[in-house]
Amino acid sequence: MPDKKLTARLSKAISSLRREPTQGRAQKTIETIFEATAQIVEQDGVSALSTNKIAQKAGFSIGTLYQYFPTKEAIMHAMTDRARRTHMDRLHVLLSEAERQTDVDYEGVLRQFIHMNLATFARGGKTWRSLVRFAWRYGDQDQITLAVRETSEHIAVTLSRKRKEGWRAPTPALMFVLTRSILGAIRSAALEDSPLLDGDEFEDELVRLALGLLQE
Question: Residue 55's Cα: distance from chain center in Å?
Answer without folding.
Answer: 25
